[in-house]
Each structure stands twice: as structure tokens, then as C-alpha cells.
């Protein structure tokens, strides 16, 4: 299950506010009107979209839409939560057998974890489980890379189309040199397309591609933890040993948080027993 990642919209909004503030400090509210030009927007956005349609097919463009959605979402299950889940599954599997985990499957929200547990329940060998789940990890990484490539290309195309718009404006300006009073305003309009293209590339497309790359790395890393957890549960590893093994994937801060949560759970059990 994913939650909303508020940092992406906050970053884009903050960047936009900073640019608007810079304009207003130098030219007042009226100065903003000088930076609004519909023709420039059409050239940059329309040209970027057209170039993407030429470069990619429809299936790949749909992957880009999903990739953009991912950049605004946040995985609700952190690594310490994942480790506690597998420790719990391991304890039940050792106590009641692997078949007892079928009752746990319906409560799992992550389809990757669910698939691994079902493979374990079916008695598949650990090596085969590792091969099946690793193949899925590779497929996920490939899909993410293809979706991210479109966003990266948009970051490359938008400044180029901004320059194309500027060249168009300069050509039109040079055709009308008889009136010197119009040269300044026409030059300003010509340069706006370069501004729009650079703005989109460096505040939206390229930072978003960077975030998608980070999210892909995090997801692949988390799936590797899941594979180790599933194999540990299937092979009947001691829950404490499994916890120690999976804790190797945690940072020092995450290990401290996991320890604190476990201590709280122990205290709650003791209080419940005393009551």
C-alpha cells in the first residue's frame, strides 16, 4: 500500500514560488504579466509531447504515466516493519507449520510478499523460489527504467524546444527591424520559451527522474530483503536468527528503531500478563 509523497509537490511548488518571488521583487505584481506567454507554452509543451510521441510507443508512454504516479507516492511499509512481519511469519511457521501461513496471506497487502509466501506454502524449493522472485525483481527494474527514460527524455527535449521557440521569435523579430521600439518586447517574448523549457527540465522532469531512480533502488533493495525473508521462513529458520540476518540490511537508525519497538512490545506483553 502506498501513501502520498508530499516532498515532490512541495519541491515543485517551492521552486515555482521562488521564481515568482524573484520576479515580483524586481518588477512588482505587474512584472509577472511579462513572463506569461501562451505561445511559448504551446511551443515548449507541444514540442516536448510531440518529440516523446515520435521517440516512444504507446505502451512505453503508459509506463511513464505510472512512473510519474510513483514519484508522488510513498511506500507505507518500512524495512523495520518488513523484518517484524517475517519474524512473525517465521514464528507461526515453526509453531504450526507452513500451511498455517495461508491464513496470513489474505492480510498481506504487498503482492510480492504474498507471492513469496504462497510459493513457500506450496513447498517449492528455496533455490526455485529465489529464481522466480529474482526474475520478477529484474522485470520490475526494467519496467521502472523504461518509464524513467521517458521522463529523462522530456527533460532533454524541453530546453531544446525552448531554444526552438526562441529562434522562431528572433526570426520574426528580425523581419520587423523598422520599429526599434518593438525590439525589446519581442526579444523578451522570444527568450520566454527558453525560460519555460529550462524551468520544466530543471524543476520538474529531471528532478522527477532522479526521484524515480532513487525509488527504484529502494524498491529493489526492499524486494531483496523480502526474498531473504521468504526463504528464511520456508527453510524453517529460527525467528531470532532470521531477524539477525535481515537486520544486516538496516541502517544504524533503523536498527535502533526496531529495537525500541521490540522493547515496547515486550513491555506490553508483560503488562498484559500481569493484568
Written account of the structure:
There is one protein chain. The protein is mainly α. It has one domain. Helix content is 81%, strand content 2%. The chain is built from ten helices and two strands. Strands 1-2 form a two-stranded antiparallel ribbon. α2 crosses α7. The model has no long low-confidence stretch (mean pLDDT 84). It comes from Salimicrobium halophilum.
Order of helices and strands: EHHHEHHHHHHH
Strand content: under 5%
The counted number of beta strands is 2
Strand order across the largest sheet: 1-2
User: What would the average pLDDT be, to the nearest integer?
Assistant: 84
Q: Which bin fits the share of residues in helices?
A: over 70%
User: Which residues sit in consecutive blocks of at least 5 with pLDDT less than 50?
Assistant: none
Q: What's the end-to-end separation, in Å?
A: 35 Å
Indicate the overall shape. Answer: elongated
Q: What is the structural class?
A: mainly alpha
Whole-angstrom Rg? 27 Å
Count of helical segments?
10
Largest sheet: 2 strands, antiparallel
For the record, the count of structural domains works out to 1
Which tags fit this structure?
275 residues, mainly alpha, 81% helix, single chain
Can you give me a brief rundown of this structure?
By secondary structure, the chain is mainly α. It contains 10 helices and 2 strands, in the order βαααβααααααα.
Amino acid at each position: 500500500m502506498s501513501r502520498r509523497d508530499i516532498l515532490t509537490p512541495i519541491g515543485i511548488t517551492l521552486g515555482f514560488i521562488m521564481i515568482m518571488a524573484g520576479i515580483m521583487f524586481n518588477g512588482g505584481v505587474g512584472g509577472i504579466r511579462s513572463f506569461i506567454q501562451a505561445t511559448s507554452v504551446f511551443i515548449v509543451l507541444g514540442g516536448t509531447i510531440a518529440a516523446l510521441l515520435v521517440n516512444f510507443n504507446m505502451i512505453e508512454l503508459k509506463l511513464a504515466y505510472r512512473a510519474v504516479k510513483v514519484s508522488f507516492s510513498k511506500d507505507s511499509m518500512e524495512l523495520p516493519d518488513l523484518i517484524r512481519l517475517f519474524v512473525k511469519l517465521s514464528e507461526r511457521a515453526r509453531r504450526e507449520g507452513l500451511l498455517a501461513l495461508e491464513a496470513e496471506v489474505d492480510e498481506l497487502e504487498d503482492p510480492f510478499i504474498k507471492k513469496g509466501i504462497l510459493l513457500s506454502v506450496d513447498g517449492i524449493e528455496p533455490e526455485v523460489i529465489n529464481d522466480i522472485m529474482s526474475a520478477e525483481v529484474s522485470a520490475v527494474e526494467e519496467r521502472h527504467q523504461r518509464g524513467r527514460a521517458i521522463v529523462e527524455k522530456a527533460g532533454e527535449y524541453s530546453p531544446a524546444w525552448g531554444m526552438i521557440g526562441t529562434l522562431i521569435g528572433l526570426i520574426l523579430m528580425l523581419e520587423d527591424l523598422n520599429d526599434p521600439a518593438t525590439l525589446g518586447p519581442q526579444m523578451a517574448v522570444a527568450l520566454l520559451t527558453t525560460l519555460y523549457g529550462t524551468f520544466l527540465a530543471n524543476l520538474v522532469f529531471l528532478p522527477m527522474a532522479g526521484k524515480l531512480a532513487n525509488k527504484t533502488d529502494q524498491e529493489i533493495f526492499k524486494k531483496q530483503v523480502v526474498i531473504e525473508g521468504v526463504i528464511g521462513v520456508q527453510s524453517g529458520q529460527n525467528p531470532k536468527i532470521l531477524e539477525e540476518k535481515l537486520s544486516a540490511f538496516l541502517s544504524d537508525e533503523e536498527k535502533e528503531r526496531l529495537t525500541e519497538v521490540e522493547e515496547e512490545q515486550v513491555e506490553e506483553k508483560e503488562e498484559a500478563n500481569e493484568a
